Amino acid sequence: MMSRQARVLVVGAGPAGLTLAAELARSGVACTVVDKRQDPSTRSRAFGLQPVTLEMLDARGLAERLLKEGIAWPAAPVGDGVRWLPFDDLPTRFPYMLIIPQTDTERILAEWALDSGVTLRRGATLERLTDTGDEVVAGLRSAGDGAEEETRWDYVAGCDGVRSTVRTLAGIGFRGRDYPDSLVVADVRLSRPPAQRVVGLSVPRGMIALFPFPDGTYRVVVEDNLRMSVPVEEPVSQAELLDSMHAVLGGDYGLSEILWASRYRSRQRQADAYRRGRVLLAGDAGHTHIPSGGQGLQLGIADAINLGWKLAAVATGRAGDALLDTYQEERRPLAAGILRKTDLLYRFNTASSPPARALRWIGVKAATLPFVRSQVVRELSGLDVVYPSMRRRGDHALVGRRYPDTLVAPASVAGNGDGDGEAVRMAEMLRAGRGVLIDGGGPAGRVLIDGGERAGRAGPGWADQVEVCVPRGPQPLPRGASALIRPDGFTCWIGRDPFIGSARSAGG
């Protein structure tokens, strides 16, 4: 156990950085976030939280705050202007996409981080970074006086976006491709907003999607095949937006004002490694891709929640260094798969040849078939994420997946294992920031709770490492089996053998 409080520097105060910092601080790590911006961004950028992200943030007590400020939209547009992909059959408390500007998401995450004890320094840039093997020396420059300060940390996490300074200084490659086409995104006012509120239409000229914000403004996303060669430096005019909307949508819904607009080119890139010694990457610093499907924000928050409990455990001496390697083992292949899928989706949406248009028409029609629709919706929701590296031969199907938000009751470790409290959801059990042991009444639960020498590599002291509970309703467990759920909500073990359970849990 370390004799002093562990210290971690997080570079970047976006969603990934703020989430990671809060996760660390609430686990007893002294965490400082630095961001080169003097003030929070006023541009909404990403604007949707998918069901799995809402589940993760619910397990941090944030879902209700987010829901109050966003718009729950229960379906995704297919692209033909008529049909939709409904989320209502998803097995979650959040069967919808929450439309909320990233500015509001960041504000809520920043409040959570500060309430958790995070130090937030704006107007500070990272100039130097040296990993000595025992610590990381970072040179920070303040925008106020321009002075550079030498600081020392146990770990540094780069959550500083596509042009990550941390990644560059750590010498980690960022491989992939840049697309030649330029796309447009804008926040606008509409005097005659669509009755359906969310609109998505793909035609030979291109694709346009409209999404409402809680303040009555709209996000417009435009892929106009006639303007994809326009240089990104050229400003987006109202006349251009009007022309694209009329060509694709057949009208402009009373476009009266552009509040903000940007022309950009997408990238598909991924860092060669998410960890190099005491330096780690999360969010866009580790991966970036086209915004199709709205996966970038989801990936960044999920990176932070996966890394947060692991880094806290290692930095405070509760786990060995090898636990940090599982962060890359789990998250990097997942992001690589999403990059491949979004690349195919981009090519599918932007191809203009007659065969491509025919294939797109077939794809739109096929998306409404029940089986295909179910698969597409689950893919969008993120609920089917699985970490193959967590699984071993013979494991229960839930191992490596998020445990369902079932009802359980907190159990007394010193007692007989019966729940001595009211039933709560699994998400509420996870809010303590620790793992959860569901004692199914078999031998595994008893041995893991008792601890001592019988708990194998996990050692004594299980009572202060996990929240123990008993079932208070249907569980996806075999009779008499127990389950161990990690602090990020993923199932690492289900069974009756206590020694297998304790050994597997010791590695996270």
Tell me the name of the CATH homologous superfamily of the largest domain: FAD/NAD(P)-binding domain
How many domains make up the 3D coordinates? 4
- What topology, given as strand order, has the largest sheet? 8-2-1-12-21-20
CATH architecture of the largest domain: 3-Layer(bba) Sandwich
Q: How much of the polypeptide forms β-strand, as a percent range? A: 25-35%
Please count the beta strands (DSSP E, at least 2 residues each). Answer: 28
Unreliable runs, pLDDT <50, ≥5 residues?
A: 413-417, 449-462, 499-508
What is the tally of helical segments? 13
Given the helix and strand composition, which structural class is it? alpha+beta
Using the coordinates above, name the CATH class of the largest domain.
Alpha Beta
- Largest sheet entry: 6 strands, mixed
What percent of the residues sit in helical stretches (DSSP H or I)? 25-40%
Shape: globular
Whole-number average pLDDT? Answer: 87
Gyration radius from CA atoms, angstroms: 24 Å
CATH topology of the largest domain: FAD/NAD(P)-binding domain
